[in-house]
């Protein structure tokens, strides 16, 4: 029995050895077994590497923005910078100590400004700068000035040296011989302000004041000022009640500062705006001695908003570079898996570079054209190049048309996100969810076990 069992066992071993014929073919290597997985990893690395030129494009945008800023500075330097009008205010010198002269500052009881803004576009090379000429009628009145509130003895006051001061941000913008009607008499301003801590730049004029038993008798004023500037025009609410009315033919105003207009209207003919501010809305008093650094804390006014900021929108577009490159490569990878085509890594790189060149085209065209038109032209050129190259590589017009359609939808989706600032997060999240759902749907058709 043992011999028979041994023979049976030997026979079984002989049969088993005959059931595993030696085909002579070596077992597949690691790289052969996981070729598609390795290629997926390689494609991911390529996507990350292509973010390097995308970041370089961000640097290009910053450089072009800096050049735009310099161009605006050149125009503003010759025309007039952003302007802020402060005043008029009364400055009355007095002896705070023997042989020591200090200044008492008094703000007007009422201040009213009627202004007309006449903007225009100036160019420096390819860059646009919004500049303006304004006509300002500034009027108001000072109440009787009570020195006892500031603990100033009447005998210490130097009335003959009192002057009316108006702060002007950029004196180069004054284009008329500015004067003031003070109690019906005309006096002309001189440049500079003795109280340099009050305004860094401005003009002043001596005005007659008289002393009474109850205080200093001041008066009313009216100033006609023609002022050039660029970018914005602001006012300081120095009156106990300050009212400002502005009108202009500029159709894209941006009301900014500490206060928005109480009433405004913007249409295709321009805008009108009216502000009303009281002394309770600000954080500085009607009179003081010494320094007051809060005088500009309540400034308000209007900015000449240029509707299109090319570089800001281009920056937002570049931020989606990883989405476009990654999804494009994913489409090619799925084509390889589902259609059994082979795309060389070098061809992936060329396609990725073409997708990056889209952004340089966009920036260059947007500097010359409307951003929307520039985006359309750059997208059509890029999609056309990638589609023709795909048709040559895959030898399939149908697949090339599918790639072109997918890129068209993707670029359209990115454009909508760029233009929809307030809804960008919502639309972007929904779009990514839909894209993920599509990718998961097509991935079901891939027989991963057979790869």
Automatic annotation (TrEMBL):
<keyword id="KW-1133">Transmembrane helix</keyword>
<feature type="region of interest" description="Disordered">
    <location>
        <begin position="1"/>
        <end position="24"/>
    </location>
</feature>
<dbReference type="InterPro" id="IPR010364">
    <property type="entry name" value="Uncharacterised_IM_CreD"/>
</dbReference>
<feature type="transmembrane region" description="Helical">
    <location>
        <begin position="372"/>
        <end position="392"/>
    </location>
</feature>
<feature type="transmembrane region" description="Helical">
    <location>
        <begin position="40"/>
        <end position="61"/>
    </location>
</feature>
<keyword id="KW-0472">Membrane</keyword>
<protein>
    <submittedName>
        <fullName>Cell envelope integrity protein CreD</fullName>
    </submittedName>
</protein>
<feature type="transmembrane region" description="Helical">
    <location>
        <begin position="347"/>
        <end position="366"/>
    </location>
</feature>
<dbReference type="Pfam" id="PF06123">
    <property type="entry name" value="CreD"/>
</dbReference>
<feature type="transmembrane region" description="Helical">
    <location>
        <begin position="317"/>
        <end position="335"/>
    </location>
</feature>
<dbReference type="GO" id="GO:0005886">
    <property type="term" value="C:plasma membrane"/>
</dbReference>
<feature type="transmembrane region" description="Helical">
    <location>
        <begin position="399"/>
        <end position="418"/>
    </location>
</feature>
<feature type="transmembrane region" description="Helical">
    <location>
        <begin position="424"/>
        <end position="442"/>
    </location>
</feature>
<keyword id="KW-0812">Transmembrane</keyword>
